[in-house]
Amino acid sequence: MVGIVNLEVPVLDEIEKMIIRQAGSTVHYPKNHVIFAAGDIADRIFMIENGWVKIYRLSNDGRRVTVGSIRSPGELMGLAETLWGGERTCYAGAIQNVTMVVVRKNKFEELLTTHPALALKVAKQLGARMREAEAIIHDMVCWQAPGRLALILFKIGDRCGEESRSGIKINLPLTHEELANMAGTSRQTVTSLLNTFRQEKSIDYEGREIRIINPDKLAKWIM
């Protein structure tokens, strides 16, 4: 589909997950909890077991701006800053109740040394996120707000959508504010655009549940 780049992130297999579980400790964070913040020392990585996490920064006026895609179960988080060292530059917030495994930097580096397949998977995840960052910059430059929002709905639908006779149900209850942060626009604009998409029968929604019911029609916003 025009404008959509397939950015499937390589997830860990069960053996790799077990290796990380044995090296770390399990933690639980409630919805909306800030898992780490800009300025924190980057001394650990996180493996998501359950739930979804958003990566964002704060603008000068205090608004949250999503700078990366949402992170899903099976992904590692906090990789680049931890491996590089220093302080974190972004925030990570729990979209839902989240279960994670936390591994200290020195222990994680030992795992990468002793498990080459895991090291390769980490490199692939970092590579996918570099492409993701490039795609976000491209989208912000090339598309107006309607196109950016349509792209986000497609990407989220691809990652956590469920196909049915009535369309693609997005199984991630995002608020209009969260969608606005991802699209680089205002909450009011997102609300207006979702109403427009529904009126043209591209999508349907009730509360935070969104369904893409006519992908071809929605895709016209990014052609």
TrEMBL record:
Residues 143-216 form the HTH crp-type domain. Keywords: DNA-binding, Transcription, Transcription regulation. The keyword DNA-binding applies. Pfam families: cNMP_binding, HTH_Crp_2. Residues 12-112 form the Cyclic nucleotide-binding domain. CDD domains: CAP_ED. SMART domains: cNMP, HTH_CRP. The keyword Acetylation does not apply. GO terms for molecular function: DNA binding; DNA-binding transcription factor activity. One of its GO terms (cellular component) is cytosol. It comes from the Bacteria. This is cAMP-binding protein. It comes from Desulfocucumis palustris. The lineage of its organism: Bacteria, Bacillati, Bacillota, Clostridia, Eubacteriales.
